[in-house]
Amino acid sequence: MHSTVTTEPAFENLRMELRRGCLVLAALSQLRVEHYGYTLRKALADQGMSIDEGTLYPLLRRLESQGLLLSEWREEDKRRKRFYRLSPEGKQMLTSLLGEWQIINESLANILQEAHS
Amino acid sequence: MNFPPQNTSHSTSPGPAPRSCDDLMERYLHAIGRHLPKSRREDILAELSANLLAEIEDRESDLGRSLTAAEQSDILKAHGRPFLVAARYSPQQYLIGPNAFPYYWLVLRISLTLSAFVYLLGSSIGLAVTGATFAAYIGVMARLPFNLLVTAGWVTLTFVVLEFWATRYPSKSAVHSQWKPESLPRIDPARRTPARVTAELLIHFGGILYLAAIPRYPSLLLGPGAGYFTAGPLRATAQLHAFYWPMMALLCVPVLLKVASLGRTLTPGWRLALRAVKGAVGLLLLVLLLRIHDYFTVVGSLPDQTNYRQAAAIFNNIITLSLRIAVAVCVLSLVWEIGSYILKGRSAGSYPLAPRAQG
After folding, report:
1. CB atoms near residue B117 (< 10 Å)
2. When you count CB atoms within 10 A of the terminal residue's CB, does the N or C end of chain B come out lower?
3. Which residues of A touch B48 (CB under 8 A)?
């Protein structure tokens, strides 16, 4: 039974839910260095955090409208692209979120350790 | 429709450089643009276009050749349906969000119940006053679903507007955080479920409808004997006719009380008071009926009316006896209710709580 559980829609929904909260953190973290949409997606995928483009590009817009990102149209390789980077508020937010992430990570590690022992 | 700028001649607008074999992508971006807000369309499409072209070029660089039409199609397909892609750029993705939905569902249920009740009661009174036909009653019932649909539509529209407002001004609409545990209703083990209250209302209403229809359709009360009754000289007396509308009005009182108490947790005292009012209304009706004495009389100028007069007297005696028994039962029931309340006191049930740890 355990081998089939990962193919069930319930698992897929829970997996998506688990990942959803991490996407913002991953994107903000990666945007400490300037990226445009496609290179950001590639950079995240290269580090094992692949994000669907239909999710990532609107997310960048949303984070920008919240004041966490700054964007700029600039020409690169003879093509104009929209580059994103963290705003000062975004940097503060990333620090706060990383602190929260650290707490969650440690708590979960303790909980999982207790469950195994 | 403004397309994303595809060449650098648009000095004021951002956009990627031209590229051959862009037909499929242009169609794709055009399809997305149809669903984007006009103010942001050009900007979003330009960015999407740049990202897609970068992805295509990246793939071509890996393969060392140009992508085929099928390979380009796969990239666009993976990006998603145009309508859904555009929808992801909207600030609001739902009409009624998870925070508002429980309120919406509660208001919808109450509104539908009240709407059905008001519509049926109002229509029935109107039909009874105008002396409508049985087909008119059926017509009223047939229009009920449409009436409920309109109510549901208005409630839904109201909540959609509220959700829209709440999304724009979240700080002004934090209703769900404005509550106190102390404002929760006391535990009431005798509280009726909404389904039961609705069923009771419908039964009450059905009873009123039935009584309202009897003067026009005596067969509802007398069955096949109604034909014999209406063909003969026996008729209801003027006193009984005069009593009819006050009786109907009094019958509406318990229903109105029930509607007024919908969604409220009544204290045992209030519940007893409501029952007492209902009992008193019933008792009043019976006593007033009892005072009439003559319910049926003989009319017309048939040569021999002795048998009919005897029949009327028997009817009147049976009705009087029945009413006396009903009055006795009603009084006993009322006394029983009040006695039970006094004996049981105001003890309210409670949910079992986890025992506190000792020491």
Report:
1. 20
2. C
3. 57
